[in-house]
Automatic annotation (TrEMBL):
Topology within the bilayer: Multi-pass membrane protein
This protein's UniProt keywords: Membrane, Repeat, Transmembrane, Transmembrane helix, Transport
UniProt keyword Transmembrane helix present: yes
InterPro entries found in the cross-reference section: Cit_transptr-like_dom (IPR004680), DASS-Related_Transporters (IPR051679), RCK_C (IPR006037), RCK_C_sf (IPR036721)
Name recorded for this polypeptide: Arsenite transport protein
Organism placement in taxonomy: Archaea, Methanobacteriati, Methanobacteriota, Stenosarchaea group, Halobacteria
MF (Gene Ontology): monoatomic cation transmembrane transporter activity
GO CC terms in record: plasma membrane
Gene Ontology biological process terms, A to Z: potassium ion transport
Keyword hit for Plastid: no
Organism of this sequence: Haladaptatus paucihalophilus DX253
Top-level taxonomic group: Archaea
Length: 596
């Protein structure tokens, strides 16, 4: 037990600190469990069982199905049609956003749903003279709530089902907990429609698009003067006037010397300028060939050559956000090769109100907004990487609208056959994948592009931790300790304790990691008390999808962080009250429907 508790502690510390990506942490845990097998009671067969677990296989197949539906453009088409119905009523806009995200997320993984609906919500706000800040958090929270409707709504549910099979001898049905999910979604939706807009500030002014909002904020940029620059020979102090921009020259670096922005020294070729300016000003400087972006690591300096023009068909400027688990986090432009991979040049960096050092010395962190210059034909690849989130909708002309009926029919067949018990969920999902490929809805070369391999390896890595906790009696010990609260509290209140504990944990570590750590403890606590283990498992599962208090608690929160112009505290401002309401509603609903 001590060895397993030690591994749990290591896992918790690594998940919280994110010293390694979560999937790497899961593999570290997996290796420790197998290497220390004599004490953890985990054989190599047990350790590798996570890769063949029905939850892992089902998540893999469902992610591919979600990618198939995404490529048809069905969700986006639905969003645009809804936009034409709601007009300029903020109430109708919020209602449409919450209703669409909540309902669709029950059948398509909530993360791609939010990624697809962010541009829809921005456009909806723009057309209706509403601040996008009023729509973005409700969009993310509604998708999380909608994911609780069915077994396939989120990978969290599928992992919980896999643990139920392992610990209770039976997996969850696709609609088994839908009645509870409906109550949770309706409760949350009422809050998001009637209360949340009153609590959300207008961080982005009405009628401003996403990029227009970014344009009025200042970036920090490092640019270099080419030999052909019209600024060469101009006094440094006259740069703002000569260049015609409203930004500020912070300093000028010339070899090993640092020159004042008020210096009378003349600009020389290869001078480096540290500039604070808006996006239009930076774009103008580059387009007018006054200054070039510094070359990305691995490229040869090209200060004597004509820079690529951002309005050229071969080169564009885009803004991207650094997401959680990005390989860029902790790296600098000098040490990372991510941007080089896409032939992208970092023009400037924005990090809220934080004052940054030199751009090329700053370590990237979650939420950083980067202004990149890159070839237009690399846009698609950048849009698909998980290391960057493009902060504007990338026009896609390859949507397969003619395949929408086929994709919807296949998805309905998967859900229907699993719900009626005709096929096991993992078999139905794999059959659906085959159907998508054979029907031409998804090309064979695209088969794995929609798979979040981080989630797959995370699932495969943490499932054996539950086996170790069960085999060594660690889960029973922890469950017994928590079960002592039943001496002072009614059973439904103990259920609430587990819900609250899981909520706190899921706002700190990933939702899937939280389920893996808490489900074995909850089931054993229920057995110790002599109550329904399924109810306790569901309390943990629902709580793990309730990361409402911070932007880093759930990936969808990070998707809306920048488009809504939010501050970190805005999520807590809206989320804490919602969290408290659901902490009462969810355990009571589970207790009433499933019994204790």
């Amino acid at each position: 037990m001590l060895v397993v508790l030690g591994i749990v502690l290591v896992a918790f510390i690594l998940f919280v600190t994110e010293l390694f990506p979560v999937d790497v942490t899961a593999l570290i845990v997996l290796v420790l469990l197998m290497v220390l097998g004599p004490w953890t009671k985990v054989s190599p067969t047990d350790g590798l069982s996570g890769f063949s677990n029905e939850a892992t296989i089902t998540v893999l197949a469902m992610l591919i199905l979600s990618e198939s539906v995404r490529r048809t453009g069905a969700v986006q088409l639905l969003g645009h049609r809804v936009a034409g119905l709601v007009g300029d009523s903020q109430f109708k806009q919020v209602l449409a956003t919450v209703g669409l995200a909540g309902s669709v997320s029950g059948f398509i993984n909530d993360t791609p749903v939010v990624a697809l609906l962010v541009p829809f919500a921005s456009d909806l706000a723009h057309r209706g003279n509403t601040s996008p800040s009023k729509l973005m958090i409700p969009l993310s929270y509604a998708a999380m709530l909608g994911g609780t409707l069915t077994l396939i709504g989120t990978s969290t549910n599928l992992l919980a089902s896999g643990l139920a099979q392992q610990l209770l001898g039976r997996s969850l049905g696709i609609f088994q907990f839908t009645p509870v999910g409906v109550v949770v979604l309706v409760t949350g939706a009422l809050y998001l429609v009637f209360v949340a807009p009153r609590l959300l500030p207008e961080r982005v002014r009405p009628r401003e698009t996403l990029l227009e909002e970014y344009e009025v904020e200042e970036y920090l940029a490092e640019l270099v003067a080419p030999e052909t620059s019209p600024l060469v020979g101009t006094p440094i102090s006259d740069i703002p006037a000569e260049a015609g921009f409203g930004g500020e020259v912070k300093e000028v670096l010339r070899e090993d010397a640092v020159l004042s922005p008020f210096s009378d020294e003349l600009v020389e070729p290869n001078d480096h300028f540290l500039i604070s300016a808006s996006r239009p000003d930076l774009t103008s400087l580059i387009e007018e060939e006054a200054l070039n972006p510094l070359p990305t690591v691995g490229r040869e300096p090209a200060v004597t050559e004509e820079p690529a023009r951002s309005d050229d068909a071969e080169s564009v400027l885009i803004e991207v956000v650094v997401p959680t688990d990005s390989a860029l986090i902790g790296e600098t432009i000098e040490t990372s090769t991510i941007l080089q991979r896409y032939d992208a040049t970092l023009v400037a960096l924005q990090r809220g109100d934080v004052r940054l050092p030199r751009v090329h010395e700053a370590e990237f962190t979650v939420g950083d907004l980067l202004l990149l210059q890159l070839p237009a034909d690399e846009l698609e690849r950048v849009a698909e990487t998980r290391d960057l989130i493009v902060a504007r909708e990338i026009p896609r002309e390859d949507y397969r609208y003619d395949k929408i009926p086929v994709a919807v029919a296949i998805l309905a067949a998967v859900v229907g056959s699993a719900a009626l018990g005709l096929l096991e969920i993992q078999v139905a999902a794999l059959a659906g994948v085959v159907g998508m490929v054979l029907s031409g809805t998804l090309a064979p070369t695209e088969l794995y592009e929609g798979v979040d391999w981080t989630v797959i390896f995370l699932l495969a890595g943490v499932i054996p931790l539950g086996i170790a906790m069960e085999n060594t009696g660690t889960a029973a010990l922890l469950g017994a300790l928590v079960a002592t609260t039943a001496q002072y509290l009614p059973t439904v209140a103990v259920l609430g304790v587990f819900y609250v504990a899981t909520v706190i944990l899921t706002n700190i570590v990933s939702n899937n990691a939280t389920v893996a750590l808490m489900v074995p403890v909850a089931i054993n606590a229920a057995r110790e008390i002599g109550t329904n283990p399924l109810a306790f498992l569901l309390a943990v599962m629902f709580a793990a999808s309730a990361a409402f208090m911070s932007p880093v608690g759930y990936q969808t929160n990070l998707f809306v962080y920048r488009p809504g112009g939010y501050r970190f505290t805005d999520f807590a401002r809206v989320g804490i009250l919602l969290q408290l309401i659901l902490a009462v509603v969810t355990p009571i609903t589970i207790a009433v429907y499933f019994g204790l």
